[in-house]
Design goal:
It is a single chain. By secondary structure, the chain is of the alpha/beta class. About 35% of the residues lie in helices and about 15% in strands. The chain is built from seven helices and seven strands, in the order E-H-E-H-E-H-E-H-H-E-E-H-H-E. Strands 1, 2, 3, 4, 5, 6 and 7 form a seven-stranded mixed β-sheet that branches. Helix 2 links the parallel strand 2 and strand 3. The longest helix has 28 residues. The chain is elongated, with a radius of gyration of 19 Å. InterPro entries: DUF6231.
Length: about 230
Amino acid sequence: MTKQSTRRAEVTLPLLIAYIDALLPTLAQETDAQTNTQSDSKSTKHKIDDKPELLPDLLWVTEDKNTLALLNTALTNHAAFQASDTTQPADKLASSTLLALNQQPVSERYELVCFWLPALSAEQLQQYIPLLMRYRDLYAAHLLIALEHNIDLQPYGFTPFDILQTSTLTEDTDLSDADMTQMPAAAHAFGSATLWQFNLYDYKQLPNWLNADYWANPENWGKHRW
């Protein structure tokens, strides 16, 4: 996922579901590439031989059980209408409410966590900011948060994200159609929200000086433990 402009585009639940279904296969490839890059930069003497931890694919989070039931219905209908094999199997998906997630004694790590919270007020959100920060920093390689339009998450390191402008999807994926078809009316009744994102692997640009050419004795880079 790449950073977009500061314009706050609107997203509906069916549109977000269709986007995530198309996005997930690319996230695993991105994570593998980043992990390989980080491993190559380590000392060969202390190189980690074990394979990277395989993360569960996706966690959906809603503000309450009623919204969670609606989400699960929308996910089921989306999967039923897909003709391709890109739809994620049920054993790779997880879902929870904010309260249940906040009360978990031990958190799991996920490739992507999506918080669908368009009905949550700014006052209600404040009690869950520490939870969002934990998933931003520790438990999600990629994080999406759908909120009411007037809530600003930029102070917490998130950026507005317009999924219709992303180049992640293939040209034959029509998200506009996915937004208006193949979904129960109840999903559309939930309206739209502003989407925020945080990507653990590209939230900060790598400085030009952070490579072997700018270090003393670059010929020893990757050969010795300093």
